[in-house]
Amino acid sequence: MSVSTAPESSARLNYSPLRERTAAFFGRHIIRVIGALATVYLLLPIAVIVVMSLNKPAGRYNFTFNEFTLDNWTNMCGPYGLCDSVALSLQIALGAALAATIIGVLAAYALTRFRFRGQGMANILVLLPMTMPEVVLGASLLTLYVNVGIPLGPVAILLAHIMFCISFVIIVVKARLAMLDPSLTEAAADLYATPWRTFRRVTLPLAAPGILAGAVLAFALSLDDFIITNFNSGNAMTFPMYVWGAAKRGVPPQVNVIAVVIFLVVMALAVTMSIVATVRANRSR
Amino acid sequence: MSITDTTTEATASTVGGTTTARDGDLQLRGLVKRYGKNTVVDHLDLTIPSGELFALLGPSGCGKTTTLRMVAGLEQPDGGQILLSGTDIAQLRTFRRPVNTVFQSYALFPHLTVFENVAFGLRERRKKDIKEKVNRILETVELASMAHRKPAQLSGGQQQRVALARAIVNEPQVLLLDEPLGALDMKLRRQMQYQIKQIQAELGLTFLHVTHDQEEAMTMADKIAVMNKGRIEQMGAPEELYESPRTAFVANFLGSSNLLHADVRGSEGDFVVADVAGQSVRIPRDRIHSTNAQVFVGVRPEKVHLVEDGAPDSSENEISGVVLDSSYIGIGTEYVVAVTGMDDTMKAFVQNHSTARRLAPGTPVKLRWHRDHTFALDGNEDPHAGEGSPVGADTRAVSIDPERPAAPANQGPSA
Fold first, then answer.
1. C-alpha torsion B216→B217→B220→B221, nearest 10
2. Cβ B95–A184 below 8 Å, yes or no?
3. pLDDT tens for residues B94-130?
4. Does B173 touch chain A (CB under 8 A)?
5. Does one domain contain both B177 and B283?
6. Which residue of A has its CA nearest to B110?
7. Is there a single domain that holds both residue B204 and residue B275?
């Protein structure tokens, strides 16, 4: 552009440096504002749980902040049956995650690595429990247990949880296995590894992130399942059922404490894992 | 080494695989592989002598990779034998076979370090002195300083060398290389061709190298088997295949050839006389690969030179024609000449070492070449077999690189 035409064209464009700069500022910062708002939206309920765990309720209901106290934290197992229900939930979640992960990994391996008759059908059938409404699943499980003669209680709950967790594990592990280059297992076999050694030394370690994710998902799903459990629990009481029952009479603030503890444990695990991953990446550099 | 001798020798070991096996030889006998109705490998007979760098060369889909995978145990043959030192290994499971593979995709284990990748096979077989062996082989491929890296932190060429080291550290009876250099750029590929050849000579292992790159096969291999449609077309040393192709496919796939319709008229001492549209051409008797009186007379474009006048030397064949077209390609000029009295054209690749002007289209010329460069193929063959494969064209284009030592493939791109 030649010098003589410059002022003329800037006049026509109605150029204002201030407005340009303001627009640029918003362009740069608006995304941060939106991000911050979304984060607040996600974490606000958790913040409320934390705050209310430090409350001394005025009446039966822990709905309004009355007075700061550490009593709930020092007397976590105060309310009758609360800690027993947490212990039962943890046991069932651990058992369900373990069993569902083993079965799910084997199923995912078979579905990705082999060709067999009815494979397409099998691929759909294993996902069915996931798509079924939980209420329907719970009710029909109850019918099944009663007819077969399995007593309602912890065992019945565990069996039900394993069942619906398998689908999730299969999905996650299958996605991971499908990403692996099939020539890796061929290379292992070419390098004298038996099928079992190939699975141990190549497939399993490479699928580990997917397997871990599947296991964590299964644990979380089992831990907070209420609907299916409610149909089949008999006299057993899991943590979600305790909270549901207590809600009618007023939820004790210790429930918030338990929730915060779970939250802290999960946070600690996540932070540890990311630190480990960073250290490993740095070491191999 | 005369061409006749090696031809007979090659024939003996190709046909029926009847030669007695030496220790370490890999013999394929009547090997068959079908996918549904499609026969990919069709009663293949091949002997790969111990200690040689042997190339299996062919266009994509010719069955060469399937053959290699059957030797590795990654595919199950539908028939035939795979003999290693005389023992049939066709039924042995992959992990029991004393062969190792360098995969086209390298297939390095991403979760293991370079060291552990290379040590994998040794650990599976519970070998001793693993550390020593791995370090020695990493020295050989110049990767000792990378031992603790993960494959993802290496360049393509380095990954290729890890794949090579991981296989050869096991000292396999046969090393199988499946298009090992396909993913590398041209310069790196040249370096690796040289390095692989050196390592092979150093270790004295048998290498079976599968490739579609005719130039790579000719540069590296002691012996080449050209494969087409599941069968071996011809086997022999690179010079032998190039100088005296037995089929139109080999004549066109390895470099390019002029193939002219001709009729055999009689013989004259060690030569057979054939008639090409009224012009006589002499062909050495041992370079006739036809029992038919109708033949294709063949000559490589770079053997032909063009003159406008003067009498031919008594040792030369001469065909007259008219220049149709010419292309200047730096190190040479490629002419297309219409042969007088027939529809066929001939290509002549002329080195640019004279200062003479380029011959204009329409100029009447004589095409001359030494009789000993003439060969003859069966007249029933398809003269265009093996032509126009995109890969062949690609590698020919590359071979114009003037820094390369003059190889037989060093000619212009075919039309």
1. 180
2. no
3. 999 999 999 999 999 999 999 999 999 999 999 999 9
4. no
5. no
6. A206
7. no
